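Notebook, student rotation project (T.W.).
Task set for the rotation: take a protein with a known small-molecule partner, predict the structure of the complex, and write up what can be learned from the model alone. Partner molecule chosen: magnesium ion. Sequence and SMILES entered below by T.W., checked by me.
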Amino acid sequence: MNKNVNQVTEEKVKKATTWKQDVEIAVKQFLYPWKDITALLGALSIPYINKGFANLSAIQSANNIYESTLKMLQLENTPILKDLSANGILTGISYFLLLYGLSKPYMLNNRAKDCRDLKITDNHTESGNTIIPIRKVKSFKNPSVRKLICYSNGVLAKDFEEDDKLERLSKKWGKFVIDVEDYKSNKLIINYKKHKSNKMLFWKNDYLLKDDFKIILGINDKGEKKILDFNIIPHITISSASGGGKTTLFKSIFMQSYLKGAKIIIADFKGGLDFNKGWDRLDKERCKIITDVKTLWDYVSYDLPDIANERKALLNHYNCESAKEYNEKIDKGEIVGEKIQRIVIGLDEAAQVFIKSKNKDEEEKLQQIRGKIETISSLYRAININLVISTQVPSSSVLTEAVRHNSVLRICGRANKILSQVAIEKDIASTISANDRGRFATNEDKDCFFQGYLFYEKDVFPELKENK
Ligand SMILES: Nc1ncnc2c1ncn2[C@@H]1O[C@H](COP(=O)(O)OP(=O)(O)OP(=O)(O)O)[C@@H](O)[C@H]1O
Ligand SMILES: [Mg+2]
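Predicted structure of the complex:
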C-alpha cells in the first residue's frame, strides 16, 4: 500500500511542471468555466463601445478625459443613468466581464503563490511545485464548506499533513482550510471555510489548563486568556447570528473538556455534520454524539437520572455538599473510591429541541427532554454535570425561563442590537462586524470581548493522531 503511494508520488513528481507549464495551465483554464466563456463573448461586443458612450452628454461636452470623468461623477448635474442607452449599459457590462476574465489568471496565480510559499513538496525544480486553482464549488453535504479544485502538479493531499501546513495556509489565505483531498488524476480539492478576518487564533494542546475544571474560551482584547470555570459557572449559553462562530466555540469547549478527562455528550440535530471530523473515533465511553430526538430522549430519561441518583446517594453517604468536596476528600485520602467524573452536556442549535415539533410523537418526547434540561440546569451543578447551550436566539420563546436564568455566563457573537440585548442584556455585540468571526461579547461588566480558538481535530485528539 505504502509502496503504491510512493510510486504515485514519484510519477506525479515526474509529471510536475515548471513555472512555464504552470502559466500554460493557467492560460488553458482561462477558458474553462462557463463564466470565462461568457466574459469572452461579452468582450466581443466591445466594438459597440464608442456608439454606446457617445450618447453621454458628459463626454460630448468635455474637452479631455479628466474633465469628462469629473462630469460623469457629478451625478446631479449630469444624469448619467438617463443618458446611458441600453447599448451603453451592455457595453459597460462586457468591459467588466473582460476585465474579470483578464484578471483571473492574476488572482489564481496569487492564490497558488500561497501554496508555493509553503514549499509543499520539493520536486527539485527552481520554483518548487505550484498547485493551480481551477474553480470553486460549494459542498452539498455541508454548505458552509467550500471546495477549491486545483491542478496538483505532483503535490498530494498527504503533503499537507506535515507540520502545521494547514494552519499556515489558513493564515495566509485568511480562510479556514479544513483539509485537502486527492481528486481524479493530478488534481486536489482544498476544503475550506470562507473567512475574511486574519485574526485567527489556533489552539495548541499545551494551552490546556490543569485546574479542575477550567476551560479557555479565547483571548480577550487585553491579550489575556478568557477562562470559564465550570465549578463556578456550571451552565452557559452561546448565541450569535448564523455564521458567528457558535459551533466552533462550542466545539472548543467540548474538545478541552474531553482532553481534561470529562465525559462529553453532544446533541447535534444538524445531522452531526459539524462533528464528523473524527469525533466518532474518540473513546466511546467518554464521547457521545447524539443526532436524533429518540436517542437524546433515551439518554436524558434513563441514563442521566440513574447517574444523577447514584451521585446524589454517594454525596449523602459521605456528607459532602458537592462532587468537588467529595473529589478533594479522595485526594486527601479521607475517602477511598473513584472520583466523580465531570459530564459536560451540550446542545448545538438548541432551538431544534425547544421549538415545538409538528409531529405529535416527537413533540411529546421533546417536551420531556425540555423538562430534563431544566432539571440539569437547576439541580445538577453539585454533581459535576454541566450544560452548554448554543442557539441563534436565546429568547424565552426558544429557551425556557429556567434554562435562561441558570445560564450564568451568556456569550454572544455577531448579532444585531435586539439579539444582543436578548442574549447578554446589552447591545455591544452589535459592534462585532461580519468579518469578525469567532469574536464574542459576554454579559460580564469588564473585559467582555474575546476571540475564540480554531482547531483541527486531527491535531488535538491523540486518538486521531495514532490513526494517521
Ligand atoms: N474563532 C474563530 N476564528 C476564526 N474563524 C472562525 C472562528 N470561529 C468560527 N470561525 C469561522 O466562522 C465560520 C462559521 O463558524 P460556525 O460554523 O462556528 O458558526 P455558527 O454560528 O455555528 O454558524 P451556523 O449558525 O451556520 O451554525 C466558519 O467558517 C469558521 O471558519
Ligand atoms: Mg453552528
